[in-house]
Amino acid sequence: MVSCKECLMNDSITEFKIVKDGLCNFCIDWKNNKKNIGNFTNDQISSNLLSLKEIILKNPNKSGYDCVVGLSGGTDSSYVVYQLWKLKLNPLIIHMDNGWNSKISNQNINKILEKTKFDYKTLILNWEEFKDLQRAFLYAGVPDIELLTDHAIFSYILNYAIENNIKFIISGVNYATEHSVIPSWGWRKDDFSHIKKIHKKYGKLQIKSFPKMYPFKKFFYEKILKKITYIDLLDYLNYNSHEAKKILKEEFDWNDYGGKHHESFFTKFFQGYILPKKFNIDKRILHYSCLIRNKEISKEDAIEMIKLPFLETQKIDEYKNFFLKKLNLSHDEFDIIMSKNPKKHSDYDVNLYDNFIFKLAKKSVKKFLG
Ligand SMILES: [Zn+2]
User: Fold this and answer.
1) From the CA of 288, how far away is ligand 1's center (Å)?
2) CB contact at 8 A, 153 and 104
3) CB proximity list for 22: less than 8 A, separation 6 or greater
4) Is the Cβ–Cβ distance between 150 and 192 less than 8 Å?
5) Dist. CA 38 → ligand 1 center (Å)
6) How many angstroms is it from 244 CA to the middle of ligand 1?
7) Residues 296-313: pLDDT tens digits?
8) Which one, 18, 54, 91, 268, has the greatest CB density within 10 A?
9) Which residue(s) pair with 264 in the sheet?
10) Strands 91-97, 67-70: pairing kind
11) For residue 75, how far is its CA from the centre of ligand 1 (angstroms)?
């Protein structure tokens, strides 16, 4: 196996290559982009945040809220809400319940909302619909089942902003800990047509209330009709998730829940069991490599961490039973799903026209400041 000198990436990942001096393409990209992100002095950070605040306040709307933000109870989104609170902005917080949230993430959300006194809305997905969608994606054999959750929250927030004329959506997406993207592991999150295509083949119920978005609608409302701006707030400071966790603990008595995105049981089991076993995907390689580059952990620590089992070995049966029961799958059905060859999302691609618009929209997205 060929591995990178500095991170954990290796040639089990299709997109991996060694570029020069033993460094992989992901490390080289990081070094090139790092010049612009995350190297701020304290004064620059304060001025970045104040400029953002100023720009937001200069564009008021009738909703009474300055901006809208999604809160999952995980580190990144919790830290965004903390920053908005410190800036004395008045966001509307949107939290989604897809039926899989862990107790810890719900407690985290409650603690944050109690202290900040921010207004919030909880989007509760229709469980029967969402279950049918998740089952359809499992049967379809594609690796990015999480896009269902991402699509729902993203669409709901954008639709809310459109309806209420809110100009700013603040996100916890950040370069520091999420800078590498592996296209073969995922799929775009903004296209309900893709979801519909898979569901039509493998689903049973009619999908009525699930939030929907389409690339053209997104492009039209964001760029032309409503001019909505996304702010990846964590890119305006030197984001470090370990430091963020400490601050959240101090301020809100916030609790850590283990692995990245393990605030949801589905994610925990999916990343810890289905992805490695069926797709030979170990997301920890990607995540730890980002943390190494962001100087949050050493490579030596990461090598030790990756030797650990994905899930607590003695709990795997318990987790699996819970997962299957919740999705109404028998052990036999699950074994068949796991034994089938993985499929690509592009096997269910739909819309050439939308893909064109998507590329165009991506090109026109500019960094908000500087
Ligand atoms: Zn590397």
Assistant:
1) 11
2) no
3) 4, 5, 6
4) no
5) 18
6) 24
7) 999 999 999 999 999 888
8) 91
9) 101
10) parallel
11) 24
Q: How far does residue 241's CA lie from ligand 1's centre (Å)?
A: 20
Q: Give the angle subtended at the CA of 342 by the CAs of 336 and 343, to the nearest 5°.
A: 120
As a dihedral over the C-alpha atoms of residue 320, residue 286, residue 178, residue 255, rounded to 10 degrees, the angle is 50
**CA 335 to chain CA mean position, Å:** 28
- Distance (angstroms) between ligand 1 centre and the Cα of 290 equals 9
Give the Cα separation of 15 and 182 in Å (integer): 7
CA distances from 251 to 32, 112, 113, 254 (A): 35, 9, 12, 8
Whether the pLDDT of residue 218 is over 50: the answer is: yes
DSSP 23-73: EEHHHHHHHHHHTTSS---HHHHHHHHHHHHHHHHTS--TTS-SEEEE--S
Cα–ligand 1 centroid distance for 272 (angstroms): 23
The whole-angstrom separation of Cα 209 and Cα 129 is 8
Domain positions in the chain are: 42-262+313-364
| pTM of this structure | 0.90
Instruction: Provide the token pair at 344.
Output: 């690509």
- Rounded to the nearest angstrom, the distance between the alpha carbon of 23 and the centre of ligand 1 is 5
| Pair type for strands 18-20 and 23-24 | antiparallel
The fold of 42-262+313-364 is Rossmann fold (3.40.50)
Q: What is the gyration radius of the CA atoms in the chain, in angstroms? A: 21
